[in-house]
Amino acid sequence: MAQAAGPSTKAMNFGPSAKRLLARLAPHKLELVLVVVLAAASVVLSVIGPKILGHATNIIFDGIVGKQLPAGITKDQAVASLREQGQSTLADMVSGMDVVPGTGIDFGAMTKVLALVLGLYVLSSLFAWLQAYLLNNIVQGTIRRLRTDVEEKIHRLPLHYFDTNQRGDLLSRVTNDIDNVAQTVNQTISQLLTSLLTVVGILAMMFWISPLLALIAILTVPATIAVTAVIAKRSQKHFVAQWQTTGALNAQIEEAFTGHELVTAFGRQREVEAAFDQRNEDLYQSGFKAQFISGLVMPAVMFLGNLNYVAIAVIGGMRVASGTMSLGDVQAFIQYSRQFSQPLTQVSSMANLMQSGVASAERVFELLDEEEQSPDRSPAVSPATSRGRVDFDRVSFRYKEDQPLIEELSLTAHPGQMVAIVGPTGAGKTTLVNLIMRFYEVDSGRILLDGTDIAQMTRDDLRSRIGMVLQDTWLFGGTIRENIAYGMADATEEQIVAAARMSYVDRFVHSLPDGYDTVIDEEGNNVSAGEKQLITIARAFLAQPSILILDEATSSVDTRTELLVQHATAALRSDRTAFVIAHRLSTIRDAHLIVVMEDGHIVEQGTHEELLERHGSYYELYNSQFVGPVAAPA
């Protein structure tokens, strides 16, 4: 089993990636403005609440103290009396209070204050709900566009990308990483916006109540920022590694599950389990380090907040005793100090979530930034006729610059011909077909379809003229009818049945309980390998292409069915061209032209009889299959 590359531990560039992620919210500018307004209104109303509640505390405290003072005198007289009695501290405190000697708690005034606070909190909650509703729409719309962009990007990527990247890692980017981005954006924007506005509002109220105590409270801000920055810097690389190891683990699981039968047949379960355990351990280590280190932020910030709370409580109590502040103001300020540290703690605790989300976002952006296949020519050219003549004119191609594969290849396939391509593994047979389909672009030379250079055609136009059946069959979850109709979206029932009969699908369909309405699962496990291959052949027949490409297309069918399919193919290729890649030479004996390739070059071409008479490469291949192994040269 192929091994995935180990994850990088290099920390990514957090700032630009986060900015790029936020830029995707740009289409919702007006809604975002409304979200900010609603959030600000909610915060303002909630921030005013403690100050008003402080007034209720003053009413209660004033009533309690006033009840203990003699009735019938003024506050100044009461203060003077207390000083004469040597109670200067109590006199200072009473002088700073709005007290009426001999009068108890004013329950009417307190009721009005409490009703006002209740109304403010109800409105604040309503605005917060509206803000959350709008923000959820914004985030989900943004993530929907991101998923759409990724889906469209995948269809614009060249085949080279899928040949060089593991499918499991690609699936992880499209699913796990985008889901993580959605969760991050949804949670952090709302909390971050509310927290920042709350900090600003609380600071304003604290400076209004007591500039001295406000300055003491602010001292925790730089300390909080410093602690968060240090911890975030250490945890960021582990979040990057966490999501990269997640992709690597998904790739290994997808690979092992896809090849489960092969793994079992060769008894390699222990090796697969060992590989899984290693990747699982890597994910555990990176995930543990990322969460543990980032999790240190909240306890550190809470500790700083508690120190701040103690300082404010002590100094505030001294100022109440001196009469320079009311008890209600101190109570409100203490409440503000707790609220002030809470949003700072929330912002700090969101550091791990933001780092994780931005790490996932960068993996998605890496996919979006991948080089796309070259655009189609504009204006494009389309062949005047559709007969299927294919000319290779001095075509050269190589996957890697320093490894030549196909060099100066020239070949002509006439309409109605069956051109068989044979040769040892790695000779370039499938590459030749990939060049016809423009899965890869030639390095030099031309490929002509009915006299038109395929590089001047649109890919859709070119591929609409080609029907391709691969050795590895692909069926999607749906009925047999739907799988056949995949070759022609507007096919009629008669056309589907005709293609099924031509490819001998009709022979086994009637033995199934639901016939053509039999539902095939996504893996096609409820039909045999040969039946799956016949369905894919029927799909190609239905498309009625100018060129038919069969890449070992009958490798999974029995000999008798293979013979029947050959006859069907012969009928289909009337006035069309068929390219057949074959390893079993018995299937291509009646080919009009057999092309023998070695190391990207055509070493022989001719009919079956002509090539046997030459006693060359084809002769050796044929004898190795039907006569016996050819002796190795001395």
TrEMBL record:
The chain crosses the membrane at residues 30-48, 113-135, 192-209, 215-232, 296-318. Residues 33-356 form the ABC transmembrane type-1 domain. Keywords: ATP-binding, Membrane, Nucleotide-binding, Transmembrane, Transmembrane helix, Transport. GO terms for cellular component: plasma membrane. Residues 390-624 form the ABC transporter domain. It is found in: Cell membrane. It is a multi-pass membrane protein. InterPro entries: AAA+_ATPase, ABC1_TM_dom, ABC1_TM_sf, ABC_transporter-like_ATP-bd, ABC_transporter-like_CS, P-loop_NTPase, Type_1_exporter. One of its GO terms (molecular function) is ABC-type oligopeptide transporter activity. Gene3D superfamilies: ABC transporter type 1, transmembrane domain, P-loop containing nucleotide triphosphate hydrolases. Its main location: membrane. ABC transporter involved in fatty acid import. Transmembrane domains (TMD) form a pore in the membrane and the ATP-binding domain (NBD) is responsible for energy generation. Belongs to the ABC transporter superfamily. Lipid exporter (TC 3.A.1.106) family. This is Fatty acid ABC transporter ATP-binding/permease protein.
